[in-house]
Please model this.
Amino acid sequence: MNDPFLKIDNLSKNYGETQALSEISLSLHAEELLVILGPTGAGKTTLLRIIAGLETADAGRIAVKGADITHQLPAERDIALVFQNFSLYPNKTVRQNLEFPLQAPGRNLSKEDIANRIAHSADLLRITPLLDRPATRLSGGEMQRVAIGRAIVRQPQLFLLDEPLTNLDAKLREVLRVELIRLQRDLGTPMIYVTHDRIEALSMGDRIAVLSEGKILQIGSPEEIYQQPNSPTVARQLGYPPINTIDVHKRRGQWSTASNHPIMTADHNAPSNATLGIRAENISPRGGEIPATIEVVEDLGASTILLADWAGQPIQILTSGEQPWHIGDEIYPSIDPDRVLVWGTTDEQG
Model:
C-alpha cells in the first residue's frame, strides 16, 4: 500500500487536569473517507482542531504527504474545516459567502478563476439557483450546503467535517449523507468525517476509527468494526438496536447468566467468566428452551424490535414485521451460535 496521505503519531492533548486526547495514532490515505465515531466528549472536535492547526498538541506529530506540519500555522496547512454550525455571513448572498475565502490575502485569484470555482462548487452541491439569494433566506439544508461549498471552493488538500449534519432533520440528513459520499468521490480529496451517529459511520466511511475518552479503541472497515468489535464499548457504538451484552459464567459446559440460567453452549477454551455480545438480528424469538416475556414492541414497518425479559436479562430481538407481537406474549429466544461475540472479563484479560 502507498504511504498514507496523513499520518498522526502519538498525539496527546490536556486541558488542565482533563486529558482530551491520549496517544492518538492513525493514518488517512489519498481519496479515503475516514469516519471518527464517538460520543459527545470523546475528543473528536479537539482532534480535528489540532489537525487544522487551531489547537496545539502537547505531544505527538502530524505529517501530510511525508512532511511534518505539527507546528505549521493553519493558513499554511491547506486544510478546510467545516463546523457543525453553519457560520454563514447573514448580510451576504450565497455567491458572496462562497467568494469570501477566495479573497483572502495571498490568494491572488483572478475574477475568472473565482467565478469558475464558484460555478463548479455550486454545480456539485446543486445550489446554482441559490447563488444570488441572501443567506438569511436559506433553509437549514441549503445553509449547510453553502458552508460545505465555502470549503470546496478553496480546493484544499484535506477536508475535515465536524458533525456537519447534526442540526438537520432526519430526512435531510439522509439525503445529504448520500450527497456527501458522492461529493467526496467526485472531488477525490481525502476527508475525515466526525460523527456520533452510527448510521452515518456505517454508511459513509471507507474506514471507521472508534474514539472514546480520548483514545482510539479500534480502526477498521465498517464491516470489521460491526462484525468483529474488539470490546463491548466498540460494539455498543454501532448497530440499531444496540447490541445485547450479557455477563455470563461457564457452568457445566454452558454459558449461564447471573441467575444460573444456561443460554448456550460454551467453548471449552473459553474463559470462565465473559461478556457475550449478541446482535438483535442474531436472536430468533423461537426455538429456544428458556421462556421470555415481551415488555416492549417497537413497530418499524418492515421489521419489529422486541424488548423482552429473558431469565432476568433484558434482551432486544429484531424480527420481520410479518407477525404481530404483543406486550405480555411468551417467546422462546434462540441464539445463532456462529454470530456470538465473546469477550473475557477485565480481570482475565489483564
About this structure: The two ends are 34 Å apart (CA to CA).
